[in-house]
Amino acid sequence: MCGIFGFWKTSVLSNEDISFGIKCLDQLSHRGPDDDGIWSSKKHKIFFGHKRLSIIDINKRSRQPFKFRDLILNFNGEIYNYKEIKEKLISKGHTFETNSDTEVLIHAWSEWGEKCLDIIDGMYAFAIFDNKNLWLVTDPFCEKPIFTYKNSDTLFFSSEPNVLIKELKLKVSLSENDINEFLTLGFLSTKTTCHPGLLSLSKGKIYKYDNSLRMEKKSYWKIPEKFIDKGKVHDFTKTEIENFRDKLISSIRLRLRSDVSMGLFLSSGLDSSLIAALASRELDAKLTTFSMQYKDGVDETADAQKISKYLGLPNVKVNSSLDKSWKKAPEFLINLYGTLNDNLTSISFLQMSKLARTHFKVAICGLGGDELIYGYNKYHFFYKWRFLYTQNFFVKNFLRLIKPNIYSRFFKGSDLKRFLQIKNGGILPYDFLKKIELSGIEKQFHNNHKLSFSSNLFDINSTLEKNYIPSVERASMRESLEVRSPFLSKDLFEFVASIDQRKFFKHGQKFLFKKLIKKYLPQELVNPKKRGFIFPINRYLKTVKNFEYEKVPFISNDFFNYLLKNKYSDNFNRVFFRIIMIKEILKG
Question: pLDDT of 375-385, one tens digit each?
Answer without folding.
Answer: 999 999 899 88
